[in-house]
Amino acid sequence: MPGTMTENEHLLSLVSIEVLISHVHINLNIECHLPCIVFRLLDYPAVSIPYFDQWQIEEFHNVKRDYPNISWRQLLSDQFYELRSANGKFNFKRGKSCLFKTYFKTLYTHLLNVPLFLLLIDQINDNGTNDNTTQFIGSCNIKLNELIEMLNQSIIKNGKDIPLVEQQTFYCTLFNLMGTQIGT
Asked: What's one GO MF term for it (predicted)?
């Protein structure tokens, strides 16, 4: 049950959210060459956490442009495909954060009802026309209501003048657009 809001609820707060991805496990029958996790909080811009650096992705696409009639599987070496473990696991061990100003009361109210959206996309470009083309693989939602309530209680207890940190670890199930589980 939500607690009482802080008394200075009309002041802007500087908030940072950090998403760390330990690993992504995808069913072996799902094809994903260049995985990337994208997260979006409320109406703020989406933030991507790619498995490969941008220069590597550009190199892969340049090679594909040079050999358009060869499949990705034939084009890329076996070592490339060994980055995905035998059971379908990509060890990301990467993360990103975003910093934004907002009214804490507004953020609190929204996060009690709206989850954090995580998308898994494949940055592979099969048509060779636009390097920004991606393919949706799956998604999951992460409820942040408990986390925002913990932060609210910390503000009530410690005041708004000191930096506060709260964290939670989540494991979520990835689903495709048809609602079928495709990984974790």
From this structure: microtubule binding
